[in-house]
Amino acid sequence: MPEPMLSMSHIKKSFGGVKALVDGNLDLEAGRIHALCGGNGAGKSTILSILMGFYKPDAGEIRLNGEPVQFHSPQQALAAGIAIVQQELSGIPHLTVAENIFLGEEPRRGAFVDFPKLYRQADALLSSLGFAIDPRARLDTLTVASQQLIEIAKALSRHDARIVIFDEPTSAIGEKDAERLFEVLRELAAAGKAIVYVTHRLAEIFQIADDYTVFQDGARVATGQVADINRERLIEMMIGGAIEGEFVKENAPTAEPVLELSGLGRAPWFEGVDLTLHAGEILGVYGLVGSGRTEMLDTIYGLETPDEGEIKVFGRPLPPGDVKAALATGLSYVTEDRKRTGLILSASVGSNLSLAHLRHLHSLGFVKRPAERALIDRAIAGMRIKTPSPAQLVRNLSGGNQQKVVFGRCTAGEPKILLLDEPTRGVDVGAKKEIYRFISNFARAGGAVLMVSSELDEIIGMSDRVLVIKQGRNVAELPRRAADQKSLMMAAL
Amino acid sequence: MQTGSRAGTNPLAMREYGIVFAFIGLCILVGALCQLKVVQGTWPQNAFLTVNNLLLILHQISVNGVLAVGMTFVIISGGIDLSVGSLLAFSGMMAASFATRSPGVTAWAGNYGAFIPIVVALAVGSASGALNGWIISRFKIQAFIATLGMLMAGRGFTMAVTNGNPISALGPEFRWFGTGKLFDAIPIPAVILGIVFLLAWIILNKTVFGRYVYAVGGNEKSARTSGINTKAILIWVYVLSGFLAGVAGVILTAKTGSAQTAAGTSYELDAIAAVVIGGASLSGGIGRLTGTFFGALIIGVMNNGLDILGVQSFYQLIIKGSLIVFAVILDPSRKLTA
């Protein structure tokens, strides 16, 4: 076996008390494409960040071509020939392709940019990579796929890159453009570079990667050649064993429908979605990011207006695009991103809790403070929110407690149907269990829960039924006993 | 909660007290500088620390104070209103056209006492503000741009009313609102400012509407998810700002005795300065009327004190400009809003 170009062995890294990497290993060979797999929090991004010089490892060794190296900064890693192609498109739309590629390193003549030289350089680079892109075109006139290629050119222009990391490069582009990208990857590998490829789309791994490494709970659990495994085996390796007692589930679904969607659609996000949610039921909705899940919840709740289809709550049609009507019929919505859409960070815990209920807590427009205070105290006690006082600014709370504030607001009005979007994202284990207990109790008391999540464990642990959404359509419905990780991932990918 | 009654842990309250100390400090500084002149024998008495001068300061800040009250609502809601100076001029001009004894400046000009011109000014201000709010919420245009348009258009309307001429010879009933005194002592504009401030404070702190203004500015999406009609809230915020520009227009026109087409030019900047010195965040969701009140007072005391001390007006501008920037740099809770 040849000496690997890069070898990272027994890397450890903790953040505070949280062990992000326990035993991180990664071996890359020149001229090969290496797929890095694992769920969220498995340690993939931590080991890549260490390779990129963003974090210092607590322990372990990195060898580049057999020589031990240490990267104290991203600049050092770049200088050693390690380049990353950013996942998110970070170009400047109103500058040209060439200006974007050489941003910050423009050839100059005195204080002025030497444009002729800039375009010559860009031309040479693009043609050497085989990209047929005009360096004088403004970036925003290009397709997203071409912009992604520009990101690659940018990463390769800076230094003589020997290792190129691609972090979910196809998340924003379509299949045809992905094909073009794969060609480029193969050419780069053929030119002797080592490629790291991170993706959640398993099919791509079998399409393009030569080697694989699977991470789980901060350690490498498997590595080898892609040719030796199949998709099922890969999923099994990624799943490993599940933790016991993580979830609380004591509800029992009834046969009484409370929320019915028929043929619901909103272009371009989703279409023809049918589902029935029953009292006492927790219905999980699983799908990849971008599958239209959040948009569906937004539409049910009335934040957006559907193009087609009908929403019925307790057998009665719900007026579309009317949040107040949704609230009045007993719907409540815990949104995906508590900082962006959930909380008012500049306000106190109390104001956040009472916000959705002030319309019932006033006389002649004046807030009834004692009634408001009572509602706030009930919500803090009910959700066990840890805050020194209701006057505390919500931004000073921990992630778990912030999420409990969102739950507290949504449930203070005694809703009958809860729409949850990623209910435990960015929440520590302890608070997670409390939230699960709350969800379970809510359903046990006759409430109905529609829960969107991209965490498979959570979907399987909490749901009575699981609906799988793929590219804006519901493609499968699985009862609890049939919903395991393998079948869900198979349906969603 | 919003009233900050539990001050201990609430940085918003700290901000509020900070500005009171800054105000007191400024008064002591100006008073001491004036006292120095008395000690040196240049002045017979301390010209700053007299009841009349303090009442004069209130009189002087009344126009900016009223505008700043409206601006506080706008800034808390996450917007900005650049048009208040122009709307002040427009509503003042319209009011004057119904309070003048020199007929013929407009087709409808005449003296109709005080009530009608005031109602006209308030209606003109409110309607223009409603247009601002409607454009901002309906077309999702940045408030900066929408009200910049109104800043120019409002000035144009003002000139169009009289073909660019001022209106003078205003009736005494109308002028009382700028020059009259309560109990022969307190200037009516200061009384108006007091009433406006009090009512606005109640609306912002005690009503559901006030809480929604904070919510819309703090996180519009979250407010929408809570079932709040954020568009309506925004429209009302700009109506309020326009209405108060009308009030300010009445005060200024009645005070000076004539409506000038250039009246209120760049007053929006003084109003924004008062709000920002008062601790509000231009990104919305944070701000207090008491802060704004002291912000307006600080600007007023500084203008007045520097005048009394004989500092030339261009140095005054430099000092005022520096103060605004320092006030924000030194704000202890600023990192919270970053």
UniProtKB/TrEMBL annotation, chain A:
GO CC, alphabetical: plasma membrane
Keyword Nucleotide-binding: yes
Topology within the bilayer: Peripheral membrane protein
Protein name: Monosaccharide ABC transporter ATP-binding protein, CUT2 family
CDD domains: ABC_Carb_Monos_I, ABC_Carb_Monos_II
Family note: Belongs to the ABC transporter superfamily.
Organism of provenance: Consotaella salsifontis
Organism lineage: Bacteria, Pseudomonadati, Pseudomonadota, Alphaproteobacteria, Hyphomicrobiales
SUPFAM superfamilies, sorted: P-loop containing nucleoside triphosphate hydrolases
UniProt xrefs under Pfam families: ABC_tran
UniProtKB/TrEMBL annotation, chain B:
Topology versus the membrane: Multi-pass membrane protein
Spans through the membrane: 17-39, 51-76, 82-100, 112-135, 141-161, 182-204, 233-252, 272-301, 313-330
Keyword Transmembrane appears in the UniProt entry: yes
Domain of life: Bacteria
Cellular-component GO terms for this entry: plasma membrane
Annotated GO MF terms: transmembrane transporter activity
Principal subcellular localization: membrane
CDD domains (UniProt xref): TM_PBP1_transp_AraH_like
Location of the protein in the cell: Cell membrane
Record InterPro entries: ABC_transp_permease
Annotated Pfam families: BPD_transp_2 (PF02653)
UniProt keyword list: Cell inner membrane, Cell membrane, Membrane, Transmembrane, Transmembrane helix, Transport
PANTHER family with a match to the protein in the record: ABC TRANSPORTER PERMEASE PROTEIN YPHD-RELATED, ABC TRANSPORTER PERMEASE PROTEIN YPHD-RELATED-RELATED
Protein's recorded name: Monosaccharide ABC transporter membrane protein, CUT2 family
